[in-house]
Amino acid sequence: MEETIQEEVLIDNLRVKASFSSSSGLLKWTGQGNGSLILEKDLLGISTGPLTITLHAFQLPNNACCGDSQRLRRDIVIDFDLPASHNLWHNEIQNCLNSYGRPKRLLLLVNPFSGKKGAQSVYKAVVEPLLKAAGIHITLRETKFQRHAEELVKSLNLTQFDGIVCVSGDGILVEVLNGLMKREDWEQAIKTPLGIVPAGTGNGMAKSLLDAAGEPCDASNATFAVIRGHTQSLDVAKVVQGNVIFHSLLLLTWGFIADVDIESEKFRWLGSLRLDFYQTLLRIMWLRHYDGKLAYLPAPGYEETGRPYTGELHSEAEVKSEGNHSDIRHKNGKYTSDWRYMDGAFIMVSLQNVPWASQDFLAAPFAKFSDGCLDMIILRDCPQWTLLNLLMTMQNGNSVKSKYLEYVKVKAFRLSPGGRIGSDVQGGYIDLDGEVVARGVGAEGDGSKDLMLYGPTIDVSILRGLATVFSPV
């Protein structure tokens, strides 16, 4: 195979001298027109005619950085004089693309109920055209009801696909995760790369992945990240209460954030504005405090937070490490001396697996995708209007500087949630990745289908780097 080929050709009907390096993937041309592209970074795919090659490009404008400009979709047509030249260039370019290990077959799960119910439009207008330009075979499924995606992947023949992509909010991605973890072959199934195209209200996972690469959070950039085929490991949180197990990718919240997320559902028609409306006009004005107890195993550097805990366990739990995974195990009915605890009144408790809780909420700026830790954010007391300012600073992560917030990296966590202080209503929600898994008496909604009970202890451990996600990095 030749490392560099050169030829005089027509590009977009202009006579140029073109060269292509198979080692670097750089195609450039000069003459009546000038230009260049790097296959790995700028190309979706190619199509060919008798004496033409059409490059389906997706490039940033000249002199633009990915963080401040949008890629542009265009076709670049190369015309050759001789069949031999056409075949040589086609083979070199195609072989170079093939060497990147990009996905060729994808299962697309579209949730038509996400956000403002725009996922189908996002798929048709953005996702499908890009995937087709990349030559990817698409199997499309629409989710019809809650946990439908979980049911689908539990019985799916995964050998037919190179990945599963969710065009939705974060909830469908989490359903897919739990479906994979409930399979008999889960240890192999969980290696399936997962992708997320933002089409919901929160979009915290898509924002976290794209922001880490300096990319704007939108459907086109997320789709291109899937097409390029880069992947990275992602921690999974294992949440347990008795015999019930739920696997989480984003966050666990209790208190203020959970109340806003769940009780603002009635304003879903407002889209992302529903969260701002609800937390500003309602929840801050009538601020709630909850009684509770939590214990945690701090990561190195956070050992002095909270208070030492050596009390009796209500269930068998203590963290041990096995390879890259942390699990909760029994040890003489007591915590080890490494555990810490807090109790009393709380406004908010949140555990973050990724930096962004939603597209405009940088809750945990120090969170990493695969560090074996969750970032715990605690708010115990705060004046109401100071809280409003604090929430505004969460948009850029500066909230962690507040004296009212405690920020602790933890390797394991236990929560015993109590009721609202000063109220006859217990209330309260345990919110995992946007889904209520437990709610107190008097809380909104029908709790008959909740996975867990509100009040009994909930244990959280980390399965380090267990999941694999498509990533632009």
Question: Tell me, what's the shape?
Answer: elongated
* Terminal Cα span: 29 Å
Radius of gyration: 25 Å
> Kindly state the mean pLDDT as a whole number?
89
Label the structural class. Answer: alpha+beta
What is the total tally of β strands?
27
Write the layout of secondary structure elements.
Elements: E1 4-11, E2 14-21, E3 26-31, E4 35-38, H1 39-42, E5 43-48, E6 52-59, E7 72-79, H2 83-98, E8 105-110, H3 119-133, E9 137-142, H4 148-154, E10 164-168, H5 170-181, H6 186-189, E11 194-198, H7 204-212, H8 219-228, E12 231-241, E13 244-248, E14 251-255, H9 256-263, H10 273-283, E15 290-298, E16 307-308, E17 319-322, E18 325-328, E19 340-346, E20 348-352, E21 356-358, E22 361-362, E23 374-379, H11 384-393, E24 405-420, E25 429-432, E26 435-439, E27 458-470
Parallel strand pairs: 8-9, 8-10, 10-11
Antiparallel strand pairs: 1-2, 1-7, 2-3, 3-4, 5-6, 6-7, 12-13, 12-27, 14-20, 14-25, 15-19, 15-24, 16-19, 17-18, 20-23, 21-22, 23-24, 24-27, 25-26
Describe this structure in words.
The chain is an alpha+beta fold. Helix content is 22%, strand content 36%. The chain has helices at 39-42, 83-98, 119-133, 148-154, 170-181, 186-189, 204-212, 219-228, 256-263, 273-283, 384-393; strands at 4-11, 14-21, 26-31, 35-38, 43-48, 52-59, 72-79, 105-110, 137-142, 164-168, 194-198, 231-241, 244-248, 251-255, 290-298, 307-308, 319-322, 325-328, 340-346, 348-352, 356-358, 361-362, 374-379, 405-420, 429-432, 435-439, 458-470. Strands 12, 13, 14, 15, 16, 19, 20, 23, 24, 25, 26 and 27 form a 12-stranded antiparallel beta sheet that branches. The chain has a 7-stranded antiparallel beta sheet with strand order 4-3-2-1-7-6-5, with helices on both faces. Helix 3 (119-133) packs parallel to helix 8, helix 4 runs parallel beside helix 5 (170-181) and helix 9 (256-263) packs across helix 10. The protein is elongated and about 85 Å long. The two termini are 29 Å apart.
